[in-house]
Amino acid sequence: MTSIKDFMFGDHILPENRLARHRDLRIGVHHQAHVVPPKPSSDEAITLHVTTSGEDSYAEVLCFYRTGDHDPAHGDSQRLSLHHTQTIWDEVDWHYIHHWEGVLPPQNHDMIIRYQIAARLRNSKDWIYADNQAAAAIDGTHFAVWVDDSEQPAWVRDALIYHIFIDRFYPGDGADWQQPDDLSGIFGGTLRGVIQKLDYIQSLGFNTIWLSPFFSSPSHHGYNATDLYTVEPRLGTNQDLYELIDKIHARGMHIILDFVANHWSNFHPTFLEAQKDAQSEYYDWYHWISWPDEYQGFFDTKSLPQLNLTLGSPARQMLLDAAQYWLEKGFDGYRLDYAYGPPLDFWTDFRRACRNTNPNSWLFGEVIHAASFQRNYEGVFDGMIDFLLADALRQTFGYQTWDIARFDAFLLGHEHYFQGCFERLTILDNHDMNRFLFIADDDPARLKIAALVLYTLAGIPINYCGTETGVTQERPIHVDGRGYFEEARLPINWNLDDDHDLLAYFQGLVNLRKKYPWLKNGSRQTLHLDVDAGTYAYLRSGAGQQILIAINLSHLPQKITIPWHAPVDLHDHLSGNVVTLKFDSLIVELEPKSGSFLTR
């Protein structure tokens, strides 16, 4: 089982592709939406950062900008000259990289600044536009910054998220799961089933639901919509959805919608019209390579045509309207699918439209990419799903390809790199990757340890439905270069007596997290690490309290000694492991493959 690999980061994690990307980002003119501060308020100036490099030299770097909804590539744009700040040497590509900065003046609240960056080649009139290296403004990359004085919604501070994949969650009282011919078929989960399981979700301690797409769609997953305003009939009706929203809010809970802006189904009426007639009003909604049958699709998938979301496009406005519509209907925010597909300035407009519709709305993105690339989205999303941490947890406690020292080194760097950045939403698995229990050789003890670490690190935990009840799978989702994502989407077995111990463990963890909400932001300190023994302990501190987490990954009982100067004994809330205080040390006796959540 340990030979199975995760592919959540795709091909760009391969060394040769990482090197190619490194070079791409260092040759030419690059901005990558690098502004400080990334979310400016009305009293803050905005500093733009740009790099230039390569075989050509550049005489000047300019920012062309306009405020409001005006396109900086058209009309009379204001100009800001950037000044050279430093030159560094790139050891990989064996050339110099020049850094430039420019400062835009403070703007009023709710003002949006749209801009382009261009550098003029020395001894030439030619301009090169960042980041796509276009030669003309009309083709250059657009950037946008929204000036916003609002704070993140208060309800997010205590959010604990339960992720529901509707078709595989619950068919409803008195209904049985359907038995399709293959796993891509319809199993029969419904919105009524979600309503009927709200008691279950709330009893586990979760207070926020992330709902998979419910729009009309030809698939079981719904990520290929044909109508963004109508519930898929097999899932229920719009009235069922409104009832679900009302009942969630009546419980003091919140609900997040999974929203896809990059693409939709090739059966969408606008696409069918555009394919029939090149003069159609919908023709410009898509990226045609050779009309009518060659066009850009999500990962070259013909059934998922990508939308043209450039500034001023009707498709862009249609998505903003749909996002505002569902917030008005009661959704509290969005999980944004494949967020690095649409252009960055689209997301600036999206965030602005959402906050202006519901000031308490919350957005978090799916950007499965390098840490530096994720930071590009700091100014447009409130949070990001932490796939880097997910990978580290899976490699350490699932596949067991990392030892605990490597995991601890990752945590130290990860926590520093994203400190003060957007919220990180933490996961063990989701609907697009192998179930954690499966990669852990179906060993619940390893799943428990991983969950203990997840729920006691910083961030906002997300639980994929069924992880808490021991849902697994029969084969990996990637075999011979092909993806079988449905393997990670098997329906939940609602005979909860089968996995009562695991379910009770998750319930205990979630409620401990609710009891100590400062875990989301508190500090962490490693107190013990022994690779050979497979033992590890760290201290979480915040709000005048301390929590000690100790784990034993080995198949043998272990006894660890931790320096401890506080004159109090600690109690294990989860496993009943024995803890004693001896002089200035804690002695923690850990059962095989177990963990302790220790407080006074």
Task: Please give the number of β-strands.
Answer: 31
Q: End-to-end span in angstroms? A: 39 Å
Structural class: alpha+beta
Helix content: 10-25%
Q: Largest sheet, described in full?
A: 9 strands, antiparallel
Q: Please report the number of helical segments.
A: 13
Percent in strands = 25-35%
Coarse shape: globular
Radius of gyration: 25 Å
Topology:
Layout: H1 15-24, E1 28-30, E2 35-36, E3 46-53, E4 58-67, E5 78-90, E6 95-104, E7 112-121, E8 127-129, E9 143-146, E10 161-164, H2 191-196, H3 198-203, E11 208-211, E12 215-216, E13 227-231, H4 238-250, E14 254-260, H5 269-276, E15 288-290, E16 294-295, H6 314-328, E17 333-337, H7 344-357, E18 362-365, H8 371-375, E19 383-385, H9 387-398, H10 404-417, E20 423-426, H11 436-439, H12 444-456, E21 460-464, E22 478-479, E23 482-483, H13 500-515, E24 523-530, E25 535-542, E26 545-552, E27 558-563, E28 571-572, E29 578-582, E30 585-590, E31 594-599
Parallel strand pairs: 10-11, 10-21, 11-14, 14-17, 17-18, 18-19, 19-20, 20-21
Antiparallel strand pairs: 1-3, 2-3, 3-6, 4-5, 4-7, 5-6, 7-8, 7-9, 12-13, 15-16, 22-23, 24-25, 25-26, 26-31, 27-30, 28-31, 29-30
Structure commentary:
The two termini are 39 Å apart. Strands 1, 2, 3, 4, 5, 6, 7, 8 and 9 form a nine-stranded antiparallel beta sheet that branches. Strands 10-11-14-17-18-19-20-21 form an eight-stranded parallel β-barrel. The mean pLDDT is 94. Strand 7 and strand 8 form a beta hairpin. The radius of gyration is 25 Å and the shape is globular. Helix 6 runs parallel beside helix 7, helix 9 runs antiparallel to helix 10 and helix 12 (444-456) runs parallel beside helix 13 (500-515). The chain contains 13 helices and 31 strands. The protein has 600 residues and is α+β, with helices and mostly antiparallel strands.
